[in-house]
UniProtKB/TrEMBL annotation:
SUPFAM superfamilies: Isochorismatase-like hydrolases. InterPro entries: Isochorismatase-like_dom, Isochorismatase-like_hydrls, Isochorismatase-like_sf. Signal peptide: none annotated. Gene3D superfamilies: Isochorismatase-like. Residues 18-209 form the Isochorismatase-like domain. This is Peroxyureidoacrylate/ureidoacrylate amidohydrolase RutB. Keywords: Hydrolase. GO terms for molecular function: hydrolase activity. It comes from Pararobbsia alpina. It holds the Pfam family Isochorismatase. Its EC number is 3.5.1.110. PANTHER family: FAMILY HYDROLASE, PUTATIVE (AFU_ORTHOLOGUE AFUA_2G08700)-RELATED, PEROXYUREIDOACRYLATE/UREIDOACRYLATE AMIDOHYDROLASE-RELATED. Transmembrane segments: none annotated.
């Protein structure tokens, strides 16, 4: 077992049973004109973590971890998008509508593609998810089971929405999870900080947290 200096206490993992899950690092959340921007958000907050996520993925690849990428993206006929989700808020364009990067939050459209700096390499797992959590409506659970994965090292966007929902889903399914604090971001820095604090409170009620610098010294 490898030990990471983490909060609220050290996190242990072995490379064979651990996956990095990189959540929704797609153009729709990070680039101008995407879903995140249409909701009125300042995308600079989330774009800032791209180099940190890239460094985390490089570290995980060198260590031989399983790498999973998720994308929040609906079927082209929107049959997996509840009307309630599509109608929520008051955006200029809605899920499925044409935008500067193709149809918003739809599978296969340019906006649903993971940005090049943190894109999947051949052989890495990619999960399209209709919800905020990566387990809901996907085969992620069975994929992880097939790979013998029991621990998840999690990064991506946004901390209090898809990252937090995925961590809670994973926790309820028995996975031990480490959130890499500076490899996750919210459009709202305060929400990020509060979510990190909340998740690791009460003795790590949902997960452990650590900054990337605590992982990088660990080498194969
Ligand atoms: N709006 C927001 O903060 N996030 C999302 O809608 N999806 C993800 O977090 N990926």
């Amino acid at each position: 077992m490898i030990t990471v200096d983490a909060l609220p206490y050290p996190f242990h993992f072995d490379p064979e049973s651990t996956a990095i899950v990189s959540i929704d690092m797609q153009r729709d959340f990070i680039e101008p004109g995407g879903f995140g921007a249409t909701l009125g958000n300042d995308i600079r907050q989330v774009a800032a973590i791209v180099p940190t996520v890239a460094a985390l993925l490089s570290w995980g690849r060198a260590l031989g971890l399983t790498i999973v990428h998720t994308r929040e993206a609906h079927l082209p006929d929107l049959s997996d998008c509840p009307t309630a989700k599509r109608m929520r808020g008051n955006p200029k364009i809605r899920i499925g509508d044409p935008g500067p990067m193709g149809r918003l939050l739809v599978r296969g459209e340019p906006g649903s593609q993971i940005i090049p700096q943190v894109a999947p390499l051949p052989g890495e797992l990619v999960v399209d998810k209709p919800g905020k959590g990566a387990f809901y409506g996907t085969t992620l659970g069975s994929m992880l089971e097939a790979h013998g994965i029991h621990r998840l090292i999690v990064c991506g966007v946004t901390t209090e929405v898809c990252v937090q929902t995925t961590l809670r889903e994973a926790n309820d399914r028995g996975y031990e999870c480490l959130l890499v604090e500076d490899a996750a971001a919210s459009y709202f820095p305060d929400y990020h900080a509060q979510t990190v604090e909340m998740l690791r409170s009460q003795g790590g009620i949902v997960c452990w947290t650590a900054p990337l610098k605590n992982l990088l010294p660990i080498t194969a």
